[in-house]
Amino acid sequence: MNKLDVLYVIMVGGVGSRLRPYTYALPKPLLTANGISPLEKTINNILEENKSNKIHLVVRYKKEIFRKWIKSKNIKNVTFISENKPLGTAGSLKKILKKKFKNIILINGDLFFQIKFKKLINFHNDHSYEATVCTKKNITEIPYAILQKKDNKITFQEKPKIQHVINAGIYVLSRNFLKKFFSSKINKVKQKFDMPEIINFVTKQKLGIFDIGNKWIDIGNIYDYKKASREIKYW
């Protein structure tokens, strides 16, 4: 176990239907943009900070391709957690509770991003949070003029830009919090869980929000996949 007692869990089991036909051949986390896949970049990011960091890959769709890929890259400290049926975005964490760790860093496998994990985990620990959600500022430009009516007055705003804070798909979850969540009466018998259920269970004032910055792209659709190919070479 590393000095920070952190277990890294990367979720790579999704089908990637919005990226078909590409994902008929390869699972989404192994699709390359500018010569590197989201999974390889994420693992590099983790191991650059500490070569002894332990990584768990949650696999389901085309799971054997992941095993072959890890072997071809000669990455030693990876453990596979296999799902035989969809367990949601957080169901596999129930199995991982059997491992020894203080915190889990949970990462969606279809992300290109750059982050200092030590800074993230220190932020989480320093505030004694039960969970920390990584976020990113996102600006959406409306490609049309917007009509607004207020007090019987009509105004137009030309192509406004709207800023939101979005979930970046990276989380820190403390072991004690996860034990409390999964030991609740209803959750003891359930198998399928999604992250909103877990985050909504967090005690008031015990949820951290960590701004990941601008180096982040989710390749969940064709547009963003092509965007990654254009942009990550400049990171």
Largest sheet: 7 strands, mixed
Structural class: alpha/beta
CA-based shape = globular
Please report the number of helical segments.
9
- Average pLDDT, rounded to a whole number, is 90
Strand order of the largest sheet: 3-2-1-4-9-6-10
Return Rg in Å. 19 Å
Secondary structure: number of strands:
11
Runs in which pLDDT lies below 50 for 5 or more consecutive residues are none
How would you briefly describe this protein structure?
The model has no long low-confidence stretch (mean pLDDT 90). The protein has 235 residues and is of the alpha/beta class.
Describe this structure in words.
With 235 residues, the protein is an alpha/beta fold. The protein has helices spanning 22-25, 38-49, 63-72, 93-96, 117-126, 175-182, 185-189, 195-199, 222-231, and strands spanning 6-11, 54-59, 78-82, 103-108, 111-113, 131-141, 146-150, 153-157, 161-174, 207-211, 216-218. The chain has a seven-stranded mixed sheet with strand order 3-2-1-4-9-6-10. Strands 5-11 form a two-stranded antiparallel sheet. It is globular. The mean pLDDT is 90.
List keywords for this structure.
single chain; 235 residues; alpha/beta; 7-stranded mixed beta sheet; two-stranded antiparallel ribbon; 9 helices; globular
Question: Topology of this protein?
Answer:
Elements: E1 6-11, H1 22-25, H2 38-49, E2 54-59, H3 63-72, E3 78-82, H4 93-96, E4 103-108, E5 111-113, H5 117-126, E6 131-141, E7 146-150, E8 153-157, E9 161-174, H6 175-182, H7 185-189, H8 195-199, E10 207-211, E11 216-218, H9 222-231
